[in-house]
Specification:
The protein is of the alpha+beta class and about 210 residues long. Helices cover about 35% and strands about 25% of the residues. Strands 1, 2, 3, 4, 5, 6, 7 and 8 form an eight-stranded mixed β-sheet that branches.
Length: about 210
């Protein structure tokens, strides 16, 4: 493996990804930076299925480009599960209320649905499944989670998506109020990336 291509154009994600993978000694590119324009329909029923579908789909496109024949393709599917809402929005987190709907609106809608619900029943978690498609045709998938509760207001500017309503009782703040380094240490994506990093390191040593 000589390059890692992460199947996203989301620069917020790429900042987190590069911080965790930066000292692997392998160039890390986003799908956009790699110039891979393939679109993949994520029609799985779990985070893991969707991550694998995306990784394999982007890998198929990348292998048509000589410069990426030996690249590892990573893809993730992540979202928020709220127990009181039967684990909604789940795998539909990005599409909840429409992909073009702002997260301020989505977050307020979720707070409204939980109005009057006590903290003990507001349990939730962020989930991130990360899949890898390797040059030899094999694949791996891992899962990371971050447990918390849904807060009572939108607060914090350091995160994105549902971070401003995801409250961490042990830290007394939302994940959008964490410093970037602390968020990477605690986050679902951070946990998933560290698990995947171990797999990448073991592959590189074979």
């Amino acid at each position: 493996m000589d390059k890692i291509i992460f199947a996203t154009g989301n620069e917020h994600k790429m900042v987190e990804i590069r911080m965790i993978l930066e000292d692997l000694g392998i160039e890390v590119l986003s799908q956009r930076e790699a110039g891979i324009e393939a679109e993949v329909v994520e029609d799985g029923t779990t985070f893991e299925e969707n991550a694998l579908i995306k990784a394999k789909g982007i890998a198929a496109a990348a292998r048509q480009m000589p410069e990426y024949e030996n690249a590892v393709i990573l893809a993730d599917d992540s979202g928020l599960e709220i127990d009181y809402l039967n684990k909604e929005p789940g795998i539909y987190s990005a599409r909840y209320m429409g992909e073009d709907t702002s997260y301020d609106i989505k977050n307020q809608a979720l707070l409204d649905r939980l109005s009057g619900v006590e903290d003990e029943k507001r349990t939730a978690r962020f989930v991130c499944a990360i899949a890898a498609a390797f040059p030899d045709g094999t694949s791996e998938v891992v899962r990371g989670t971050m447990e918390g509760i849904i807060g009572h207001e939108i607060i914090g500017a350091n995160g994105f998506g549902y971070d401003p309503i995801f409250f961490l009782p042990e830290y007394g703040c939302t994940s959008a109020q964490l410093a970037p380094e602390k968020k990477n240490e605690l986050s679902h994506r951070g946990e998933g990336l560290r698990k995947m990093r171990s797999i990448l390191e073991s592959k590189a040593l074979r």
